[in-house]
Specification:
Blueprint (H helix, E strand, L loop, with lengths): L11 H11 L5 H33 L2
Helix pairs in contact: 1-2
Amino acid sequence: MTTGPAGKSFDFDRRIEGILVRYDVGSEVHTAISNARPCLAAAIERTRERLGRSTAQSANGS
């Protein structure tokens, strides 16, 4: 959710908005993405935290 179709990095909110504008309100995709948005944002945050810990552990030799 932080990478676009061509592999370019995106801000999460920008990526979600890009998806939502392509689909009509009420469509399956628009509804699913809108409903999942908080869970997707939380998953991205958890992943970034894990990556940060992994990077810090590597730098400390742990």
